[in-house]
Design goal:
The chain is globular and about 80 Å long. The two termini are 41 Å apart. Helix 2 packs across helix 8, helix 10 packs across helix 15 and helix 12 crosses helix 13. Strands 13, 14, 15, 18, 21, 22, 29, 32 and 33 form a 9-stranded mixed beta sheet that branches. A 6-stranded mixed beta sheet has the order 3-2-1-4-11-12. A hairpin with a 4-residue loop joins strand 2 and strand 3. The protein is 32% helix and 28% strand. It has 694 residues and is an alpha+beta fold. The chain has 17 helices and 33 strands.
Length: 694
C-alpha cells in the first residue's frame, strides 16, 4: 500500500493527513516543537501511522508523495532572529532599504496602533547600515550599461563583509532585473571569496520595477535563508534516512509546492505560506461541491486567517508586508489577526473593557485548562466554561481539560469588571467572533465583493466552534466544516492537494492601444520557460496548466489591478476586450463610474502561472446512514437562549449523509467540535462535510 502525506506546522499543533490509494484518510496531531520544528513534523507522521495501524518507522518507505507547509521563514522574520546579513548595492543608493517607502513607519500595523501616529517607528533593520556596501555601476531602464561594474570595489565590498563575519550577502542593483550581468558577476565574486556564505540576487527573485521592494526581497531572502535552508535540508535528510525516496515538496505562499532544493535557494517564497494550505484545500473542495465563491477561515490556536476564492480561483496579491517590511512576492491574499483558541483574554485598563488577543498562550504553556501551567484566560478556557467543549472528550479524550483551572483564570477578568465568570467568558467569545466577522467583511468589501454571495468554509482546531456566529454576522447563508473531523487538520490536507506551481513575470510598460504581437511574444516566452521547468521536474504536457495575468492601471496611477488574460493567440480584438475586462474589474473594486477611461490604460507586468498537476487519490463518497439520535445532553450557554440550556450532544462518529440536526446542538468529533446555534440546521453531505444552514 502506498500513501500520500501532507504535514502542516502551526503555532500550537503540527497536523498530518495520510491518504492511501483508495482515498481513505487518516489524520493526526502532534505538539509543535519550536526548538526544532522537524521533530514535530516527524512525530505527526509517526502518530498518523500508529492510528493507521502500521509501523511508524516503516511508513516513510511507503509514502509516495510527502508535502509540507512550514512557518520557519515567517517565524524568523517576525521574531527578528535571522542571519547576519550584508547588502551590496549601486553607489548612491545605500539608504533605499533604510528609508523604506513613505508609509514604512505604518505599513502592516493593526488599526489600534495606526491611531497613535506619534508612536510609529520603523522596524529594526534586517541589514544594519554599516553592513550596506556601495559599488560603482549603472544600468539604465533599457538595460544598457551606463557605467561598467567596478570589480575592484565589488571585491573590496565582499571582503569587508566577510571580515564582518556575515552569514549572508544580498545583491541588488538599479535595473538589475532588466540586465542582471552586474548582479551575476558580484555573486560569482562572493562564491569565489566566501563559498560558505549564503548569497542571493534581487533579479533572481523579483523581475519588475520597485527599487525598495526588490532590495527588501533580496535582503529578507538572505536574512531567513540560512535557517530555512538548514531546516529544509535537515528535514529532507531525516525523511530519507527513514526510507522516503521521493522529492520533499514545500508549500509556497503563491498557493503551490516546489521541490525542497528550490526552497533552499529561495526561502523568501515560503514566508506567509502557513495558512495557504487551507485556502488551497478550500479551492479543491469547492470545485467538487460546486461552490464558486468561498470565504476560507482558519481558526487555530494562535491566529485567525482568511482567504478568498472567487469564481473558482483563489484571489492573489503581488505584495507582502511582514514586520512592516513591504516586498514583492506572489502570494495568495490571506489576512490574519491574533484571534485563535489560545488568544488571551484581558482587560484594557484605560477603557475598562474586555479585549481578546493578539497575544496567545501558544503551545507552551497553552490555555489554563490544559493544565500545563498557564494562568491567563483564553478563548479555549471560555468555551470550556460555556459548555461548548467537553472537558472529558477534548481531542477525542487525548487531552483532559481542567474546568476549575479555566474558571480560576477567567475569574481575574470577571472580578475586574464586576461580572461572574460565565458572563466574562460569553463576552470574550462574542468579542472574538465579531472581530473575525469584521476581518471577513473587510476582505470581501475591499475586493468589491458582497460577502452575502459567499459560502463560509470553517476549519482549524477552533473554526467550527465559532463559524455559525461570524457567518450569521456577515449575512452568509451557509457554513461548510470541510470533511467534518478533517477540518482541524485542513491545512495539512490542503498542502497535500496542492500542485507544483511556479510564477514567471516580465516587466515592460505598454500603453493602449496595445500591440497584440508584442504582448503575445512576451507570454510565449514566459510560457516556454514554464513548460521547460515543469518538464524538467517530470510533468507531461497533459499535466501542465498555464494561466496568464496582467497588472493594469490607468495612466499616471500608481496602484495596479491584476486582470486575467485569455490564452491562445492575441489579436487587436482581444486587446480591446482586455481593456473592457480591466475597466469592469476596476469598477467592481472602486465603484461604478470610478474608471477614468480618458487617461488611457497601461500594463506594466505580465505574468504566467504554471502548474504541474499532482495526481492524488480522489475523495470517496460516503454511504447514507440510518437516522441517528443525540448521544447525550448537557448544559450549554447560548446567548440567544439567554443562558444555559439543556442541549443535544451528537457523536460525530455516528452521523453521516442523511443526518439532519436542529440547533441548538453540539457535534463532537474526535478532534473537532461543531457548534450549531439556536434556529440553525446542520447536515452531513456526501463527502462527510458538515453543512450548517445559517
Amino acid at each position: 500500500m502506498s500513501y500520500y502525506c501532507g504535514v502542516d506546522i502551526g503555532g500550537t499543533f503540527t497536523d498530518c493527513v495520510l491518504v492511501d490509494e483508495t482515498g481513505t484518510i487518516t489524520l493526526a496531531k502532534a505538539s509543535s516543537t519550536p526548538q526544532d520544528f522537524s521533530q514535530g513534523f516527524l512525530d505527526a507522521i509517526e502518530e498518523a501511522a500508529r492510528q493507521r495501524g502500521i509501523d511508524p518507522e516503516g511508513v516513510f518507505g511507503e509514502i509516495e508523495l510527502l508535502l509540507h507547509g512550514t512557518t520557519v521563514g515567517t517565524n524568523v522574520l517576525v521574531q527578528m532572529r535571522g542571519a547576519k546579513t550584508g547588502l551590496i548595492t549601486t553607489r548612491g543608493h545605500r539608504d533605499a532599504l533604510v528609508m523604506m517607502r513613505s508609509y514604512g513607519r505604518s505599513a502592516g500595523l493593526p488599526i489600534e496602533k495606526l491611531l497613535h501616529v506619534s508612536r510609529h517607528r520603523k522596524p529594526d533593520p534586517i541589514v544594519p547600515p554599516q553592513l550596506i556596501k556601495e559599488v560603482s555601476e549603472r544600468v539604465d531602464w533599457a538595460g544598457d550599461v551606463f557605467l561598467p561594474l567596478n570589480e575592484d570595489e565589488a571585491r573590496a565590498a565582499v571582503e569587508e563583509l566577510v571580515a564582518e563575519e556575515v552569514d549572508a550577502i544580498a545583491i541588488s542593483f538599479l535595473w538589475g532585473f532588466v540586465n542582471p550581468d552586474h548582479e551575476r558577476r558580484v555573486k560569482a565574486l562572493v562564491q569565489e571569496l566566501a563559498p560558505d556564505v549564503f548569497v542571493s540576487c534581487a533579479h533572481e527573485l523579483i523581475a519588475k520595477p520597485g527599487e525598495y521592494e526588490r532590495t527588501a526581497a533580496a535582503a529578507i531572502n538572505c536574512y531567513v535563508g540560512p535557517s530555512t535552508s538548514t531546516y529544509v535540508q535537515r528535514l529532507d535528510g531525516a525523511t530519507r534516512e527513514r526510507g522516503y525516496t521521493h522529492p520533499l515538496l514545500i508549500m509556497q505562499a503563491a498557493g503551490g509546492v516546489v521541490p525542497a532544493n528550490e526552497v533552499a535557494e529561495a526561502p523568501l517564497f515560503t514566508i506567509g505560506s502557513g495558512p495557504v494550505g487551507g485556502v488551497t484545500g478550500a479551492t479543491f473542495l469547492a470545485d467538487i461541491l460546486g461552490h464558486k465563491n468561498v470565504i476560507a477561515c482558519d481558526m487555530g490556536g494562535t491566529s485567525f486567517d482568511v482567504g478568498l476564492v472567487h469564481d473558482g480561483l483563489p484571489i492573489s496579491s503581488s505584495e507582502t508586508v511582514i514586520n512592516q517590511y513591504t516586498f514583492f512576492m506572489p502570494r495568495l491574499l490571506i489576512e490574519s489577526i491574533g484571534a485563535g483558541g489560545g488568544s488571551i483574554v484581558w482587560v484594557d485598563e484605560q477603557s475598562g473593557t474586555i479585549r481578546v488577543g493578539p497575544e496567545s498562550a501558544g503551545a507552551d504553556p497553552g490555555p489554563a485548562c490544559y493544565g500545563h501551567g498557564g494562568e491567563r484566560p483564553t478563548i479555549t478556557d471560555a468555551n470550556v466554561l460555556l459548555g461548548r467543549y467537553n472537558p472529558e472528550n477534548f481531542l477525542g479524550g487525548r487531552l483532559a481539560l481542567d474546568r476549575e483551572a479555566a474558571e480560576r483564570a477567567m475569574a481575574s477578568i470577571a472580578e475586574a469588571l464586576g461580572m461572574d465568570v460565565v458572563e466574562a467568558a460569553a463576552g470574550a467569545v462574542r468579542i472574538v467572533e465579531y472581530q473575525m466577522a469584521d476581518l471577513m467583511r473587510q476582505m470581501t468589501v475591499e475586493q468589491g465583493l458582497d460577502p452575502r454571495e459567499f459560502v463560509v468554509y470553517a476549519y482549524g482546531g477552533a473554526g467550527a466552534a465559532h463559524a455559525a456566529v461570524f457567518a450569521r454576522e456577515l449575512g452568509c447563508s451557509e457554513v461548510v466544516v470541510p470533511l467534518g473531523d478533517l477540518a482541524s487538520t485542513w491545512s495539512a490536507l490542503g498542502v497535500m492537494s496542492s500542485d507544483v506551481l511556479h510564477v514567471y513575470e516580465h516587466a515592460e510598460l505598454v500603453t493602449s492601444p496595445f500591440d497584440a504581437g508584442r504582448i503575445g511574444a512576451i507570454y510565449a516566452e514566459l510560457e516556454e520557460r514554464a513548460r521547460t521547468q515543469l518538464a524538467e521536474e517530470g510533468f507531461a504536457d497533459a499535466d501542465v496548466a498555464l494561466l496568464r495575468y496582467a497588472d493594469m492601471k490607468f495612466s499616471l496611477q500608481i496602484h495596479q489591478v491584476e486582470v486575467p488574460v485569455p490564452g491562445g493567440e492575441l489579436t487587436d480584438a482581444t486587446m480591446e476586450q482586455q481593456i473592457e475586462t480591466f475597466i469592469e474589474r476596476y469598477e467592481s473594486i472602486y465603484g461604478k463610474g470610478s474608471a477614468f477611461t480618458g487617461a488611457g490604460v497601461q500594463s506594466g507586468v505580465f505574468r504566467v502561472v504554471g502548474r504541474g498537476r499532482i495526481r492524488t487519490p480522489a475523495l470517496p463518497k460516503l454511504e447514507a446512514r440510518a437516522a441517528a439520535s443525540p448521544a447525550d445532553r448537557r448544559d450549554v450557554y447560548w446567548e440567544e437562549g439567554e443562558g444555559f440550556l439543556s442541549t443535544d450532544i451528537w457523536d460525530g462518529a455516528a452521523i453521516g449523509p442523511g443526518t439532519e440536526i436542529t440547533g441548538p446542538a453540539i457535534v463532537e468529533m474526535s478532534v473537532t467540535t461543531i457548534v450549531v446555534q439556536p434556529g440553525q440546521r446542520g447536515r452531513v453531505d456526501d463527502y462527510g462535510s458538515f453543512v450548517i444552514t445559517v
